[in-house]
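Researcher: Structure prediction, please.
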Amino acid sequence: MRKRVKLAVVLVVIMLAKRVAAGDPEPHAHVLTEEPRLLCIPPAAERCIDLPPGHFVDRTTWSALDLELRRAQDAETRLGAENRSLRASAASWQPGWKVLAGAVVSGLALGWYVHARTE
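Model: Predicted structure follows.
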């Protein structure tokens, strides 16, 4: 009986699973060069440069990547400064046992006073 239940569960899982197939790769917004390429800007043929091997992106993609990189650098710098400041301020003052004992005694005294006044 247990084997039948297990087999039924396995069959249901297999039948309900989505089919996995390799799809088309996502279109890239960059050009990959494996060897040096000559880039010429029309209409003049004398405005040509050699591109070294590597990845090259269009202006829109470059702007988006540059903006994200600058945002991440600014956030890292800001968080690092905040952490240093917080650690410096936290290290300067630590409540001792006298402060904690005073707070507990004051709380108990205030509680006793309020309790006595409400009776």
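Model: The first strand starts at residue 30 and ends at 33.
Researcher: Thanks, that helps.
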